[in-house]
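TL;DR need structure tokens for one chain.
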Amino acid sequence: MSKAIENLEAALKRAMANRPRVGGFPYLAETLRRAGVTRNIWFLPACQSLYLTNDGPVVTLGAPLVSGTTDVPAFNGAGLIRALRTDQAGQSTFPEFLEASWRSGVVRYDVDFAARTVAYYGCAGEEYVETYPSVEIE
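>> reply
TL;DR here they are.
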């Protein structure tokens, strides 16, 4: 196992153990940033996550949201914002958030840990960018 994978897995474990249920993403993001993760790019519906780290890039493959050939939902900014607010309120699991994002036409999202932004993209160039707050962690 590479240093990049070991570091990423340890940071994810720390983040999941310590993040609050409501508004937990900024804690996860700060834990990853402190561990040297600079970006995290998710590709939906494959649930492929690319982490760019100071120790090298790492890819994680999750359970895909769909299989076979399927139509891509139209980008729906209002639906995406509902999915975000539901998740931020601690009222959805991460897999539910990914599913709701996909149903809102998100095919990719990109977390920039230095800028504290998440950009969500549709397949026709649609984009929604949201900032997240800085937090202190122990």
